[in-house]
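Notes to self after the call with IL:
- keep both proteins in one doc
- input above output, always
- annotate only the second one for now

Protein 1:
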Amino acid sequence: MLASNIRDIYLVDELQLGQRLNESLQTSNHADFALMLSMLSADVTDTTIVNEKAVSQGIVGDEALRRKFNLPQPVKKYAEPCDFSAGANMADVLHIQGLNSIRLHNCLHQPPLCPVRYDIAPEVLAELPPLKQEKLRRQFNGLETQSVPLMESGDGFLVLDEIKEAKALAS
């Protein structure tokens, strides 16, 4: 589960909502139900259940998951200086051994996805959900997104309570 400094600000999982989803269904309040569902995080690793199982089984972090499922190292996102010299070497291999050897080499040793690292443009960052923006900000600042044990707090939907009270007073 994400640390409380993020969970207090952003709606992450349905545990923060308590019984609100059930109440919305029982009262046929489809607008509130849809609003709450749309605000939940789409990232499955943010949920409490996934992280608690990972901690209890000793599967924490990308490397542990790669070892458990026998996966290769991830493809590098950005090129390093040594990758540019590899491109020149591939030209020699093309002339000597042909195109099939280049294809085989690229299957075994994936080339980087981008030749140069660009930071995310502000326009793109602004289009992301707030929780994803916060995670990226932490990643760019070199901070880890920490997981903590579950502690229930308010659901953050005081506005919906005020709306219900106003509707009740209007009736």
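Protein 2 (the one to annotate):
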Amino acid sequence: MMPAVQGPMYMDTPLGMISTPMYETGKKDPFTLEASKMALSHNAFIRGFNSIYQQAPRVPAVDKADFVGYCIAWHDCVEAHHRYEETTFIPSVNKAAGQTGLMQAAIEEHALFHDGMERFKKYLLKEGMRFSAAELLAIMSSFQEALHSHFKAEPSLIVELAQHSTPEHPIDILTIADSAIRKQLTLGLVVNTLPVFYLNMNYAEFEDGMWDGVFPAFKGPSKALLTKGVPMWHSKRWRFSSCSPEGKVKNLAF
């Protein structure tokens, strides 16, 4: 039997990774930690983008339907993340601080790539496995700069929230973020979308492996469930991801 042919090793291109504030500064306060978790989440979205961009020209026709499912899951994951910010996380921060407009810049940045993201999904839903790699990459290129700029800028906005936390209006940023995330979770999101997030996380190697077991914070059975158990559904989609269940960069499917 001939050995299975592997695609090339995933590379951080066309979008580069984002360093975490904690790695850059050595600070460990709650705002720096939450900003770093945001940067790591953004890196998972960036690797998802890159894995789509790199593989789209090489995916054989027989595998295109699964690839489209992967692409749409990536879109829906990024969309869910920004919905979580706009509807729960940022309003909760404003309420705790007794102010309005905190992180408004992030909301305005979302609008800069929203239309491009929607074109991406609508094109894939319309064309399905008949999609043209050249057209798909052209759509992605149209919004990649605005998307990447936002991903790089937002962690600093979270670090800066520390100056708005006072004894009268304390901002418990870690609790706010955890509560906001829990409100967004549904069974459909976990099964159909989250694998594209966890399987694009290079937690075992990125920044000297300092995030392994820290973010994502799962260990043991919960880690196995989220990185190996849940992805058994729609398993053919998740093979296009950039990282292994162990959090290491891997060879791409194509």
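Annotation: The chain has a mean pLDDT of 93. Residues 213 and 219 are 6 Å apart (CA to CA).
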